[in-house]
Amino acid sequence: MAERVAYITRVQSFSACHRLHSPDLSDEENKKVFGKCNNPNGHGHNYKDVYERMVVCLQIDAETGMVMNLTDLKRYIEDVIMTPLDHKNLDKDVPYFAKVVSTTENLAVYIWDHMVKELPEGLLYEVKIHETDKNIVVYRGE
Prior knowledge:
7 strands; 4 helices; Tetrahydropterin Synthase, Chain A; 30% helix; alpha+beta
């Protein structure tokens, strides 16, 4: 029988606030670049974090019928995303963002970098974050 490969997706939502502000720009430049998202008090999102095709090019195990146990994947998501990010101020509560602008692009990189350390090697394919219904970021570790 030919090797069977499957991609699995787990969707997880979390809420967080942040302020788009670069220390490399003046206050005026930050306001120009980030607009209302540069509000000194920040703003919030209900992020929908989609791990689309999170597991890539893995053979379906003949004994279990799975690529990986979804209970394990759920635990990794809890440890990497929910505990450190949910209901947090990204800029103040997550040390990574003390020196990195908390854009959704950088949030995707943060999640990738931390998730790839937890998952078995070669499993993570893509992190997709829906910041809003219209703004979506996809990161594949590139």
